């Protein structure tokens, strides 16, 4: 059995269809003052892989209009880094 190939599609559209929808990369940059406030929660997220306490504390600090963005960020695996003294959380 062969796969159906639509010859009207260019290679880009064919690969786009095969690959599916890609997740948007999100990044949260927090200033140095949050480094000490979130240190324990960051350690739990890195060592144990449990992001719940970190998300709960960040949601407590954030404005209600930012909650959906943060929940999308924490929906998948996250990376936690320090850059120029800032705490950077990305997916």
Structure description:
With 91 residues, this protein is of the alpha+beta class. It is built from five helices and three strands, in the order H-E-H-H-H-H-E-E. A three-stranded antiparallel β-sheet has the order 1-3-2. Strand 2 (79-83) and strand 3 (86-90) form a beta hairpin. Helix 3 (39-47) packs antiparallel against helix 4. The longest helix is centred in the middle third of the chain and has 10 residues, at 52-61. The radius of gyration is 19 Å and the shape is elongated. The mean pLDDT is 81.
Core attributes:
5 helices, single chain, alpha+beta, three-stranded antiparallel β-sheet, 91 residues, 3 strands
List the helices and strands and how they pair.
Layout: H1 11-19, E1 27-30, H2 33-37, H3 39-47, H4 52-61, H5 67-73, E2 79-83, E3 86-90
Outline type: elongated
Mean pLDDT: 81
Portion of residues in beta strands equals: 15-25%
Q: Flag low-confidence runs.
A: none
Strand adjacency order, main sheet: 1-3-2
Structural class: alpha+beta
Number of strands: 3
Characterize the largest beta sheet: strand count, sense, and whether it forms a barrel: 3 strands, antiparallel
Fraction of residues in helices?
40-55%
Q: From N to C, what is the helix and strand string?
A: HEHHHHEE
What is the count of helical runs? 5
Q: What is the CA-based Rg, rounded?
A: 19 Å
Quick structural overview:
This protein has about 90 residues and is of the alpha+beta class. The chain is built from five helices and three strands.
